Amino acid sequence: MSEPLTALEKEVAQILHTKLEVAGDSASSAGVGTEEEALPDPQALPQDGDKLTDMKKCERALKNRLAAKRSRDQARAYVQRLESNVSDLLSQNESLSQLLALSDSRNALLLAENKNLRRDICQLR
Fold first, then answer.
1. How confident is the model at residue 45 (pLDDT cuts 50, 70, 90)?
2. Tell me, what DSSP letter sits at residue 33?
3. Angle ∠(25,69,73) on CA atoms, nearest 5
4. Scanning 7, 15, 31, 114, which has its CA 20 to 30 A from the CA of 41?
5. What is the pTM of this model?
6. Contact 46, 24 (CB under 8 A)
7. What residues does the BZIP domain cover (predicted)?
């Protein structure tokens, strides 16, 4: 993903950077780049049991937060597309309703004309 970092992704990168510094790892990313760059390499994390577990939990929580945000954004975009489709279909329905009303009135006129012509034919016989 080569898009610029969102505020949430920057926050994730900053938190991970801080966590890595606290854990004694000074070779963390600068918080700039892609989402993958913002998350540390699991092999680069300290091997201390509790710290490692805490780091993995933190990383998982942050990844989960990013995934949830992407999911919400996708859901919003989907709803917007549906609303747009509804608007288009309502407009099309209105146009077709007007066309139907016009066709019905034309049909009524033609039926009346046909009735008059049949009556005229009967009178001529």
1. low
2. S
3. 145
4. 7
5. 0.51
6. yes
7. 54-96
